[in-house]
Predict the 3D structure of the following.
Amino acid sequence: MNDNKLIAEFMSVEYTGTRVKDYDTSWDWLMPVVNKIEMECEGVPLQLLDCSLYSEIDEVYQAVVEFIKTYNSERSKWNEQTRIEEGLDHKG
């Protein structure tokens, strides 16, 4: 999956065609993602700890992508566990 598309999905942004927002090249697009991540985590997650005001956009972008992939994976595991505990998983 295209990493910009991954970020757009995390941000609940609709995308059309092949062009997705410029999260990888624009601080104006990337910083709202960082802000949402910090709000979701109620602080700075591990993936972003090494980033600073002096970090290059590529470094912050990669940290954001790493966080979202981990976040999605953990959320998927949590949803699966919840379905099992609630008896909603009918796997035999």
